[in-house]
From TrEMBL:
<dbReference type="GO" id="GO:0005524">
    <property type="term" value="F:ATP binding"/>
</dbReference>
<keyword id="KW-0479">Metal-binding</keyword>
<dbReference type="InterPro" id="IPR011712">
    <property type="entry name" value="Sig_transdc_His_kin_sub3_dim/P"/>
</dbReference>
<dbReference type="GO" id="GO:0020037">
    <property type="term" value="F:heme binding"/>
</dbReference>
<dbReference type="InterPro" id="IPR036890">
    <property type="entry name" value="HATPase_C_sf"/>
</dbReference>
<dbReference type="GO" id="GO:0070026">
    <property type="term" value="F:nitric oxide binding"/>
</dbReference>
<keyword id="KW-0902">Two-component regulatory system</keyword>
<dbReference type="GO" id="GO:0016020">
    <property type="term" value="C:membrane"/>
</dbReference>
<feature type="domain" description="Histidine kinase/HSP90-like ATPase">
    <location>
        <begin position="490"/>
        <end position="579"/>
    </location>
</feature>
<protein>
    <submittedName>
        <fullName>Histidine kinase</fullName>
    </submittedName>
</protein>
<dbReference type="InterPro" id="IPR003018">
    <property type="entry name" value="GAF"/>
</dbReference>
<dbReference type="GO" id="GO:0000155">
    <property type="term" value="F:phosphorelay sensor kinase activity"/>
</dbReference>
<dbReference type="GO" id="GO:0046983">
    <property type="term" value="F:protein dimerization activity"/>
</dbReference>
<dbReference type="InterPro" id="IPR050482">
    <property type="entry name" value="Sensor_HK_TwoCompSys"/>
</dbReference>
<keyword id="KW-0418">Kinase</keyword>
<keyword id="KW-0460">Magnesium</keyword>
<dbReference type="Pfam" id="PF02518">
    <property type="entry name" value="HATPase_c"/>
</dbReference>
């Protein structure tokens, strides 16, 4: 049996062998340790890559923009073990329009106050759109510090989020777990997540834009349908204003139009508010000045005017100042009809280009529907006028001729009647026929007039006669001769007031049983009010008669009070020229 030990006397060789063996064993252990570390790194890298892939799938899964933005921040914090995270959405210029944060509760957020606007390091990424990795945020030259009650933050990682060639915003991460700084691997992972986030945000924005467009199209269709169906225009215009307020995400909205559509556009000085929705806005009936205001610019140039937050007095009194405003012209190729104005609360984001485009198209379609509805209404009125002309011809050519024939027959019979009672009845019948013929002629005048004011004035005079007489149990009779359609608004107001006051005096003071009103329209308007009472009492106050005389003077006419030609009572005659 041979020994494995070296030969006797070779002591130096034995020592060298032990050292070599020890060194060899140490090298193996180091190699194994290094291999183990590399394996752990590979496993960690694989886990992080798996987490990144899962995060990218999670971020790109949804189409709701707000939820997608929140998911991006939460996922980024989880991937790099950051305590705090935020996504700043770029607005106009280099300011932040939105700031979605993670890690700060509602109570702390309330104590901090206003959200960041993009100054300091947060805004640096807009000017230098590349990743920023800092061990101590406060030591960076661009740092502007933290507001009171803000939690301390040291380590920082900022990465821009791009949508194609546009900087949508920045992803901010602070306070890595264990107080460690963010690593280069963290930066690479967050950059990859930001790239996926850009795609997800783009998809969500496209989806949101499609949904908004569909909502505007549906609103336009509803408005056009209501207009063309003959719905009350005021009701439809109210819906127009409410749709505009809702779809532009505004606090309030108003509709203003010229108070007289017949005045040329270049002669208008203001528009009248006719519809409104929401609070803190000009009341209906208030005028909006055109000169030097955004309302005037939009109306006269027929172009939308968009105002940012804090627009001062650009809208003009009495509109509120403060939040973003959008003034939309309601116009057709032929004419300007008015403006549609939406107002957001102070501090709200401005109107984006897509909202302005969709709202302007909605206003254009609403204006076109308004014009088409007005055209249809005019056509219906023409149809009514045509029917009135036909009825008037039939009344004149057939009904009146037959009544004349009946009247002539009655008059010829009257000559052969010897019984006094029969003669009296025939005479009364002939008088009634003449009265009916006169009323039909008046109706023919009204039908040919074709103006709703005619019917309105007839009703006003009838009410002025019968309201007091019916209340007192007195018989009231109305006879109208001539076309009421030629009487203007001012003279019509005088006529109603004169009839009402004269009839009221007769009812109160004359003791009459019958009051008759004759209205004659020729070169002048003549009102004759007669009663069968005992005349004007001596103790009656003359104020009522003075008012009638004053109205005659104001209208350039005459006024006279006298007893009737036969019998008892009072005869009031009031006249005024038509022009």
């Amino acid at each position: 049996m041979q020994s494995e030990l070296p030969p006797h006397g070779a002591g130096g060789d034995v020592g060298s062998y032990s050292v070599r063996e020890t060194l060899s064993q140490l090298g193996v252990r180091e190699l194994l340790s290094e291999v183990r570390d590399r394996i752990e790194q590979v496993i960690d890298t694989r886990d992080r890559m798996d987490g990144l892939v899962e995060a990218m799938l999670s971020v790109t899964a949804g189409l709701d923009l707000d939820r997608t933005l929140r998911t991006i921040v939460q996922t980024a914090c989880s991937l790099v073990e950051a305590r705090y995270g935020a996504l700043g959405v770029r607005g106009h210029g280099d300011e932040l329009e939105q700031f979605i944060n993670e890690g700060i509760d509602e109570q702390a957020r309330a104590l901090i106050g206003d959200l960041p606007r993009g100054r300091g390091v947060l805004g640096l990424l807009f000017n230098q759109p590349k990743p920023i990795r800092l061990a101590n945020l406060a030591q960076h030259p661009s740092s502007v510090g933290f507001p009171p009650n803000h939690p301390p933050m040291n380590s920082f990682l900022g990465v821009p989020v791009r949508i194609r060639d546009e900087i949508f915003g920045n992803l901010y991460l602070t306070e890595k777990a264990g107080g460690q700084p963010f690593t280069e691997d963290d930066e690479v992972i967050v950059q990859a997540l930001a790239a996926a986030a850009g795609v997800a945000i783009d998809n969500a924005r496209l989806y949101q834009g499609t949904q908004a467009r569909q909502s505007w199209i549906a609103a336009t269709r509803d408005i056009a349908t209501e207009f063309l169906a003959g719905t009350d225009p005021d009701e439809v215009l109210s819906q127009v204003v409410e749709h505009a307020r809702t779809l532009t995400i505004s606090q309030s909205a108003i509709l203003a139009v010229p108070d007289d559509p017949d005045i040329p556009v270049e002669e208008l000085t203001h528009l009248m508010v006719t519809q409104r929705a929401g609070n803190d806005v000009a009341p209906e009936g208030r005028g909006l000045a055109l000169a030097g205001t955004a309302v005037g610019d939009a109306f006269l140039r027929r172009q939308p005017v968009c105002l940012g937050d804090g627009h001062d007095a650009a809208l003009g009194d009495p509109l509120p100042e403060g939040g973003p405003a959008l003034v939309l012209p309601l116009s057709t190729p032929d004419t300007a009809l008015g403006v549609l104005l939406t107002l957001r609360e102070p501090g709200a984001p401005p109107f984006d280009d897509q909202t302005v485009e969709l709202a302007a198209a909605f206003a254009d379609h609403a204006a076109l529907a308004m014009q088409l509805a007005d055209t249809q209404q005019r056509m219906r009125e023409l149809d009514v006028l045509s029917d009135r002309d036909r009825i008037a011809r039939d009344l004149h050519d057939h009904v009146i001729q037959r009544l004349f024939s009946i009247g002539l027959t009655a008059q010829s019979t009257l000559a052969r009647a010897h019984n006094p009672e029969v003669r009296q009845r025939l005479t009364s019948m002939v008088d009634d026929l003449h009265q009916v013929i006169q009323e039909i002629r008046t109706s023919i005048f009204d039908l040919h007039g074709g103006d709703h004011r005619t019917t309105r004035l007839r009703q006003r005079i009838d009410d002025a006669l019968h309201q007091p007489t019916d209340a007192a149990g007195i018989t009231g009779q109305l006879q109208i001769s001539g076309p009421l359609s030629v009487i203007d608004h001012t003279l019509a107001d005088h006529a109603e007031a004169v009839v009402r006051e004269a009839v009221t005096n007769a009812v109160r003071h004359s003791g009459a049983t019958t009051v008759t009103v004759h209205v004659t329209v020729a070169d002048d308007l003549t009102l004759l009010i007669e009663d069968d009472g005992h005349g004007i009492p001596a103790d009656i106050t003359p104020s009522g008669l003075t008012n009638l005389a004053d109205r005659a003077t104001a209208a350039g006419g005459q006024f006279q009070v006298s007893p009737p030609e036969t019998g008892t009572g009072t005869r009031v005659c009031w006249s005024a020229p038509l022009t």
